[in-house]
Design goal:
Length: 215
């Protein structure tokens, strides 16, 4: 059965682009069907002139309920890693490739379900507008969905994590795993190892920015 085609977010973009106008317009986005079950649109957060933009996959359960990105368990892990890497969260812009929570009910719980290509494409105009306005010096994709949405389907985070990627999206572009993957590691030892690698990737991003500025 072919995937359903969607109208897409482009029809909902405001005439005057500011982060405020985008956030307001995104609240009424029906560019794909994900809005039907989600609590609300979860738009990006952070200053318009943020030096670094982080892009994840989609909001999780906590983000859907609170209306802000990266505020759940993965967000707390992300905050901890940023601090350890010497990156101030309040100086970054954090968003997702898809702005509505996609899930499947399992009892009383809502279990994350990966967005498909048509949903990612439908939501892409919001992300493109955010990139256009923020103009980050560095872009870090968190996880395979975000990386492939921005860097192409052939991109493999497992092979290229923590490395500079040639892209017109920003002067420095890199990718790493999504912090939620750290929480799914099978053992405490695995979680510790993955967390240290995640922090190392964030430090590599900070060094790349510093080197770009001094060049």
């Amino acid at each position: 059965m072919p995937r359903k085609s969607f109208e897409g977010a482009a029809a909902y973009l405001p005439k005057v682009l500011t982060l405020t106008s985008l956030r307001s317009a995104a609240k009424g986005c029906h560019g794909c069907d994900l809005y039907k079950d989600a609590t609300q649109t979860v738009f990006g957060a952070g200053p318009q002139r943020a030096q670094i933009m982080f892009v994840g996959e989609q909001p999780g359960n906590d983000e859907d309920l609170q209306g802000a990105p990266f505020v759940g368990p993965a967000g707390r892990m992300f905050d901890k890693a940023l601090e350890e890497a010497g990156i101030a969260r309040e100086a970054t812009y954090v968003t997702n490739a898809v702005k509505h929570f996609k899930f499947e009910p399992r009892g009383k719980k809502r279990i994350h379900k990966r967005p498909n290509t048509t949903e990612i494409v439908a939501c892409r105009p919001w992300l493109e507008a955010e990139l256009k306005l923020v103009k980050p010096r560095a872009l870090m994709c968190l996880g395979a969905t975000a990386a492939q949405a921005l860097l192409g389907k052939s991109f493999r985070v497992t092979e290229e994590r923590g490395q500079r990627v040639a892209s017109e999206l920003a002067p420095v572009v890199m990718a790493t795993v999504h912090p939620s993957s750290l929480l799914r590691a099978p053992s405490a030892e695995d979680r510790e190892r993955e967390y240290k690698q995640f922090v190392a990737d964030l430090r590599a991003l900070a060094r790349a920015i510093a080197n770009k500025q001094s060049a």
